[in-house]
MFS transporter (Actinomadura rudentiformis), 412 residues
Amino acid sequence: MNTQQAVLSPGRARLTLATLFLGMFVLGSAELLVVGVLDLIAADLQVSIPAAGTLVTAYAAGLAIGGPILTALTIKLNRRSVLIGALLLFALANLLLVLITDYGLFLAARVVAGALQGVFIGAAFTAGIAVVPPERMGRAMSVVISGVAVSAALGSPLGTLVGQALGWRGSFTAVVGLTVVALLATLVLVPPVPGTGSGAAGQAKHAFAPRVLAVLALTLLIYAALYAALTYLVPFLQGITGVSGTLISVFLLAYGAATAAGSFSGGRFADANAARTLIVGTAGVAVSLLALYLLGAIAVLAALGLLALGLFVGVMTPSLQYRVMSLAGPGGALAQSLPASAVNVGIAFGSAAGGVAIGNSTASSAVITGLIIAVIVIPVAWGTSFLKPPAVQDAAGRAATPSSTPATTTKP
């Protein structure tokens, strides 16, 4: 990206990254909140549980499709302005959810909210890497990404508790309030970061280059493997491990905490060697799923398998983002919104595959399905490790780093 970089003191850079983390945390919590209060929403809107479940799909579709579209439309705008606009409209979309009773409008508002989260993600990465030197770009990404990981581990469960105590509208009111807090923090702490000089059409040929699509396919497969097993983890824990009730929540919390810890630490591995991190990470996911399948009947070992799975997935996430952005080169500003789309498509594919498997077999079949996909992913990760950014591929030998790499001297 040809983005002029903000010159900040180390302390101010940390505050900027913390603000972006907060925004990602709030939006990630809102995305997952519906799952925990699905029955309450269905009863209030007078629709079936499957119809209410469509609200989750609608949000994912908005993020996967609408996010890149909005990113393309706002590619030349200042990133700070995009962040502010996305948070403002996100607050209004969730306020609408609190006020309406019509299912059709509710569904539309969820699609819009998903698209706004998608454009926020791309702008947050751009703003985050703008305040750090090139060698710390992965660590900046890990801070931003960790907002989503922490929202899965803490934000969604806490929102569910609020929803059960105060009603689902109370939980969404809390989301609106937290979004306003994130908006105010962005106004105060995030510096202006100019958009790109070229429009979406000029960036598209780089953002959708075969080398970038290959890593996006890798991202899709990784999350397909993960969610083939994870979507049906509760039946596995109940039927194979023999745990139930509050113990299931403990297992899920352990996985979420491990994912958050992995995403925080994964930035250092991305900065060191993102391609190698993906090879090791995909192998780790496969081994973790194999251990879960073979040793899942023993509660302690099942918990350790989930911890390992969460760590490996978390560690890989910054490297996936880093590779897509680097390989896109001049198209990095547009490409940064694409991994989130690949993740959501992978989740949908993996959940469907796991559902078919568990519907025709035992509770462990979904884990086996995830394992099979994970084994396929390992050589894909190895193959993508040979892909080089356009600046490295340049036969003329230009020594410049990929244009999406920032060049400042501050440290977060």
Q: What stands out?
A: Residues 393-412 have pLDDT under 50 and may be disordered. The chain has two domains: 1-197, 199-393. Residues 1-197 form a domain with the Growth Hormone; Chain: A; fold (CATH 1.20.1250.20). The chain has 16 helices and no strands.
